[in-house]
Design a protein that fits this description.
alpha+beta, globular, three-stranded antiparallel beta sheet, 2 domains, 5 helices, two-stranded antiparallel sheet
Length: about 240
């Protein structure tokens, strides 16, 4: 009898609790097949010791950057090369989202199952061409730089280009998520992707450091140009 009373009391208490504190629905649509939901709350955030970061950035500035700044190209322009680049978080999240979403969706259409473990981003060291190389005509992806006098100073400067990679036979290979022809072997030796001093290509591929997302003629998943320091104010840097 006492056991029965206790069970009834527990049931009533549980009912009252659920009524007052109903379970909240997960706002993340993980159960929707065509959505991507990320939750890494069970993993730790990456950290580096501050003294290691200082050591590495200072070594770069005293070696590679110093050598570059003494190059005649930079001496002629009377300015130093960029030593950091800034991207806003939303731009990075959009870029990563579209790489995963596009490759997963298109991969299913060619009988290729692609998960986030198959994907990556290769970061190339790069430098902006000079305005004399005709940004407006030859490189229209750079046309937005003309609207910002500060970004007109980007010519010659060090930057980064991020290109998606796909696991192909155990190797992470550059590929274009929007072009399934690159899924078997990547970009290597693909018609249209090969560029030499004598061959140019108007073909677009998914990458970051292309035209701005506000450009209505932008047909790729590339995002806006990162903020180079210098010429941007270095006071916001911590290292």
């Amino acid at each position: 009898m006492i056991t029965t009373v206790l069970l009834i009391a527990v049931a009533i208490a549980f009912g009252v609790y659920v009524y007052k504190f109903p379970p909240k629905k997960n706002p993340c649509p993980c159960d929707t097949p065509n959505k991507i939901c990320l939750d890494y709350s069970s993993s730790q955030i990456n950290e580096l010791r501050v003294d290691l970061i200082h050591t590495m950035t200072n070594k770069y500035r005293s070696n590679q950057l110093d050598f570059v700044n003494r190059n005649t190209d930079f001496l002629g322009y009377n300015k130093n090369d960029a030593h950091s680049i800034w991207f806003d978080l939303i731009t990075l999240k959009k870029f990563i989202y579209h790489i995963e979403k596009t490759s997963r969706d298109l991969g299913a259409g060619v009988n290729r199952t692609i998960s986030d473990k198959d994907l990556g981003i290769r970061i190339y060291y790069a430098a902006y061409p000079t305005k004399e190389e005709n940004w407006k005509v030859k490189f229209p992806d750079l046309i937005d730089l003309y609207s910002d006098p500060n970004k007109q100073l980007y010519e010659h400067l060090h930057t980064l280009v991020m290109v998606p990679t796909l696991n192909i036979d155990g190797k992470m290979v550059d590929f274009n998520p929007k072009d399934t022809d690159t899924y078997p072997n990547g970009l290597y030796d693909m018609p249209g992707y090969v560029v030499t001093p004598f061959i140019s290509s108007p073909l677009k591929t998914v990458a970051m450091t292309g035209s701005t997302e506000n450009d209505p003629n932008n047909l790729t998943s590339s995002q806006n140009h990162g903020n180079l320091i210098p010429p941007a104010d270095p006071d916001s840097e911590g290292f």
